[in-house]
Specification:
- It is a single chain.
- This protein has helices spanning 2-20, 78-95, 260-308, and strands spanning 37-46, 52-54, 56-59, 68-69, 73-75, 101-102, 108-109, 121-122, 125-129, 133-135, 140-144, 149-153, 157-159, 164-168, 176-180, 184-186, 191-197, 202-204, 209-223, 227-229.
- The protein is α/β, with parallel strands linked by helices.
- The radius of gyration is 25 Å and the shape is globular.
- It starts with a helix and ends with a helix.
C-alpha cells in the first residue's frame, strides 16, 4: 500500500515537470500581407500637409490631404483585403499567449507603475492590463532586452504629449505589440515604437514620430504632420556585429536589434533551457522515487524474513 502511494506521488511529480515544460517565451506572429503597411484602416484622415509614411498605406476612404508615401498605396484592393485578414490572424495569435505579468485591475500608467519591476523599464514578456493603459506625464518607458513584448489591455491606450518609448540592449520594434480593445491616442510631440493593432481607431497627435505600424483595418486612423516608419525587420544579422556597436534605440533595425526570427530564436533558446531544467528535475524525481520504492521493498523483505525466523 505504501509503495502504491509513493508511485502515485511520483506520477504527480512527473506530470508537474511536463506541464511546466509547456510554458514558453512570448513570440511575435507573422503579419502576412499587413507586414509592409505603416497604416491600414477603413477611413484614413490626414488633417494637414507634412505627414510622411515610410511604408505602405491602405484604406477604403482616402484622406482629403494626401501624405507623402514612400511605399505603395492600396485603396481597397486585394492586397488591402488580405492584409486585413492577416491583421486579424496576428491579433488572435497575440491574444492567445499567456500573461507573464498581470497588473492590478484598473487603469495603469506604464511610466509610473512599480508592481512589474523597475519604474519605467520593461523586459520581454506579455503584460496584461484589465483596463486602460497610458504613458503619462511626458515620461519615458524603456523596453530592455531582445525578445517579444506584448502589451495587452482591456481598454484604451493613451500616451501623453512628449512621452517616449525607447529601446535598449537589443530590443526591436519588430517585436513590440500593443493590442488595446478601445481606441488608441498618441499625444503630440511623442515618440512611439511598435505595432498597434486596434480596430477601434488610432488617433496620432501632431508631430509624432512612430517606428512601427498603425493597423486599424475596419477602423479609422488619423494623422497630423507625423512621421511613421516601418522598422527594418531583416532576418539576417550583420556578420561584422560586435560588442563595440552601441545599442540601437531608434527601433529601425541595425546591428543590435532582433528581428521576428531573432525573437523566435531567443524563444527557442529559452525553451531549450527550460527543457534541460525539466529533464534534470525529472531525473532527480525518478531517482528519488526508485530509491524510496527499493527501500520500501527491502524493508518488506526484511520484515518478512524476520517474521519467518
Amino acid at each position: 500500500m505504501k509503495s502504491f502511494a509513493k508511485l502515485a506521488l511520483l506520477s504527480l511529480a512527473i506530470s508537474f515537470c511536463f506541464s511546466y515544460s509547456t510554458v514558453h517565451a512570448a513570440t511575435s506572429p507573422s503579419l502576412g500581407q499587413a507586414d509592409t503597411f505603416v497604416i491600414l484602416s477603413n477611413t484614413y484622415t490626414n488633417t494637414a500637409p507634412g505627414t510622411t509614411l515610410n511604408g505602405d498605406l491602405g484604406y477604403t476612404v482616402p484622406p482629403a490631404t494626401a501624405p507623402t508615401v514612400n511605399g505603395s498605396v492600396h485603396a481597397a484592393d486585394s492586397t488591402y483585403n488580405q492584409a486585413g485578414i492577416d491583421q486579424g490572424t496576428a491579433l488572435v495569435a497575440l491574444n492567445n499567449q499567456p500573461c507573464t505579468f498581470s497588473f492590478a485591475p484598473g487603469a495603469i500608467n506604464l511610466a509610473t507603475d512599480t508592481t512589474h519591476g523597475p519604474v519605467g523599464v520593461y523586459t520581454p514578456g506579455v503584460y496584461c492590463v484589465t483596463g486602460a493603459a497610458s504613458i503619462g506625464g511626458g515620461a519615458t518607458i524603456t523596453l530592455d532586452g531582445a525578445g517579444t513584448y506584448i502589451f495587452r489591455m482591456d481598454g484604451a491606450l493613451n500616451t501623453s504629449a512628449n512621452s517616449v518609448v525607447t529601446l535598449a540592449n537589443g530590443a526591436s520594434a519588430c517585436d513590440i505589440w500593443w493590442t488595446p480593445t478601445a481606441a488608441t491616442t498618441l499625444g503630440a510631440d511623442s515618440t512611439f515604437i511598435g505595432t498597434d493593432i486596434d480596430a477601434s481607431g488610432i488617433t496620432i497627435g501632431n508631430n509624432v514620430t512612430w517606428t512601427g505600424k498603425a493597423l486599424a483595418f475596419g477602423g479609422t486612423v488619423s494623422t497630423d504632420v507625423d512621421t511613421i516608419t516601418a522598422p527594418d525587420c531583416s532576418t539576417t544579422p550583420d556578420d561584422d556585429d560586435d560588442d563595440s556597436t552601441p545599442d540601437d534605440t531608434s527601433g529601425t533595425g541595425g546591428d543590435d536589434t532582433s528581428s521576428n526570427s531573432g525573437s523566435e530564436s531567443l524563444a527557442n533558446t529559452g525553451t531549450n533551457m527550460e527543457n534541460i531544467t525539466v529533464f534534470s528535475s525529472l531525473l532527480i524525481v525518478i531517482g528519488l522515487g526508485i530509491y524510496l520504492i527499493r527501500k520500501d521493498i527491502l524493508t518488506s523483505i526484511f520484515h518478512s524474513l524476520t517474521n519467518k525466523a
